[in-house]
Amino acid sequence: MHIILLLLALALPFSSYASMPSPAQIGTEGRYSLAPYFTYLEDRTGQLTADALLRPSAREQFRPVAGPGVNFGYSRSVYWLKAVLRNEGRAAERMYLEIAYPTLDRVTVFLIAPDKSRQVLEAGDLQPFPQRPYHHRNLVFPLTLTKGGEDTLLIRVESAGSLTVPADLWREDAFHDQSRDGYAVHSLYFGILGALILYNLMLFLSVREKVFLAYVCFVAAMALGQLSQSGLGSELLWPSFTAWGNIAFPVGFAATGFFGALFTRLFLDTPRGAPRLDKVIVVLAAGFAFTALSPAFLPYRTTAILTSLLGVSFSAVAVATGIVCVRAGRPGARYFLLAWTLLLIGVAMLGMRNLAWLPTTFVTSYGMQIGSALEMLLLSFALADRINQMRREKDAAQRDALMIASEKEKELAEKAREWEETFNAISDMVVIVSRDYQIVKANRSAAAVLGPDQETVIGMNCHVLRHHHDRRRHDECPCKVTFGEGKPSIMEFYEPHRERFLEVSTSPILNSEGEVVEAVHITKDITWRKKMEEEIIKTQKLDSIAMLAGGIAHDFNNMLTIIMSTTTLAKMYASGDARVVAKIEEAEREIIRTRELTSQLLTFAKGGAPVKRLSSFPELLRDTVEFSLKGSNVGYEMTVAPDLWAAEIDRTQISQVIGNLVLNAVQAMPGGGTIRVAASNAAIDGRNVLPVGPGRYVRIVIEDSGSGIDARHVSKIFDPFFTTKKGGSGLGLSTSYSIIKKHGGYIDVKSRTGVGSVFTVYLPATLDVPRGEPEPAGKELKGAGRLLLMDDDEKLLANVGEMLEAIGYEVETARNGEEAIILYKRALAQSRPFAAVVLDVTVIGGMGGKECIGHLLALDPGVRAIVISGYSEDAVLAEYRRLGFREALAKPFTVEELQAQLRKVMAG
């Protein structure tokens, strides 16, 4: 409630027609206020994008920000802020953008470098605190400015509350200094509130007067509102509970108003001392109670405005009531009036500071906290006066002196505790090393490795941080550079016994004379980063052959379709000669095997996108493993979690992955053996070193006891065409890697020569329950109805058309989309519509199926269309339903497969 006047003061939007601001010159200062450099744009629809606003044509849409601050009041619009940052330093520099208004719903920051590369970060009180780019009570965005260049800063802001954007750009050391001071002030403030709550709660338990309980609830509600307004609530109390964090601000201050009104009535006895004002207080208390509950059924903006209006009204009524009761000589009325006056002065100072009417000092920056703290202290004194009015002045003086001493001691202890907790909370190994290379202080992470406790680590030689033994050698110690040259040092190395990549950095600690007396030694686990680098290299290798593979597969599949249709027709015409039919069927089987090879090539191309459906794994795993082991001397053991999650997968591609891994295991055990297959649920969090995002995954493990993989080859097994087997194509594992990558998962291998290999697959999971798999279509080759077939390959068109006519269809053919549209229009005009349409995706020099289906849907929304393709750059086979097709079929296909799809679409 007590921030109400400030909210109204800041809620007045400004406008200006001044000239556009010049770029912000980033020099050597610690802090830069960005308000004078901003221009803004109001996005009423919320549909604008950063790319659209970065175009030269959008520059004229931005207007300068008027006034000393950025404040758009309560608005349903999205606002965009833009500024140009000119880094005058000699190197690219990491700085911190701080928006000191943590109740904004969503803030997205774009930093666009001169080379068009960009950094994109997002934070807000609708985002869980752990997902923020920087863990801080305010909205903080770490940004790296370009060396000697001009970066464009673009900020997108939307909020159901007040759109206030106090933006500052900080250097790291200055930011940490002011942040530490801010936390110290808030620690002192909430320490005061906590002390008042406990003290007056004890008084209530002692004297059993309701006024003390009302005061305790009043202070607690104030603390809740301030926790939300300061951002500390989201950081410390409800970091992941965004639904509550979003409404805690108005609810806390509405509750403050309700209990403040109740306390006023009980303390000043307004029913007897000021009956007219008492009726107004009762009405306001009812309004506060309604507003505190309103987030359950009213929009946030309505609740915030109601809280503001009620807060302003009650502040005026409280001051008026205090004046009336002072004149009437009511006990404690002077304290009450002074308390509210100090609060309003503090709020006014903060408001005038934000409007640049007062300079920024400690008092003006924390005017509201100082005012509210003094208000509650004074109200607490007034309550104590009720217990023993005769000794009020003496007790108040003693209490003031004791409180000041206690708070100073608490402040010092709190700062020391905060530093110690921060030091110990760092997940990296951090130690402080003396000039003689002795560890003089270590955090918990370092003690956990070197242990058993922090006291034991002190006195060890810093060499143990890398080599885990206390040798007096410093030749390779990074501290040597820091102590010798007085500058930071950094290095990377691999720790084989922990299978971790580590980054070691040291920074000097200087005394007052500028001499290096100690060094901060930080050991960071960078295994995850290294794995991501390896993943990028693998992806680049696959991309290098993607276009070649796709082109080969496209032409090859068209030829295979012609061959397949030709053999099918030959088999139909030779049905009376069993030997000829047998030979033709043998040729068909070889064509299908060839199709599997082109399927592997398509996996590398963009057209090999998975056609995903919600699926379960137990049956898929068992069927694939058993099929892959047929005819081998290898058995298997399978363990599947009973509650195994499902996933959105392409069953054919995932079956191909499992089959490749099983065949790989069989080839590794020529003497026979047993393969162990396990499927379980895996919840991955941000601490895991796997190169996948946090979430739910299905983990599939395939383990063999074969010859293993040579350590020199482990990093290459997923490379295209790499193989150590005679006659191997080198496509099996690289195909598997590409499939899993396109599913958003990860595949890993661990192997020891002579012991065996373990392949682990992670696939993104869902809690949805899959429906049963569709029953396969019948195999009877009989059809009826008119079909429209479109393909740019005349030979394929003729063969497939003849094949369809041979099983009973009436077929009309088109060589491109334009011809298909003409034929479809004519069929509708003659009242002889086509029962189904088969369209090829890619037509050289003409309209393809992807464009054609749009025109056909405009003519006939009920068109039944099947898309066919040997290669689709736009992944049409994976997204066919979104484009308007009923089914999809990859080339080459058999007459049975085509007939099955035709039956599906014609059945509706």
Keywords:
single chain; 908 residues; alpha+beta; seven-stranded mixed beta sheet; five-stranded antiparallel beta sheet; 28 helices; 30 strands; 47% helix; globular; disordered N terminus
Question: If you had to describe this structure to a student in words, what would you say it looks like?
Answer:
The chain is α+β, with helices and mostly antiparallel strands and 908 residues long. It is built from 28 helices and 30 strands. Strands 1, 3, 4, 6, 8, 9 and 11 form a 7-stranded mixed beta sheet that branches. Strands 15-14-18-17-16 form a 5-stranded antiparallel beta sheet, sandwiched between helices. It has a 5-stranded mixed beta sheet with strand order 20-22-23-25-24. Helix 20 (578-604) packs across helix 23 (732-742). Residues 1-18, 469-473 and 773-779 have low confidence and may be disordered.
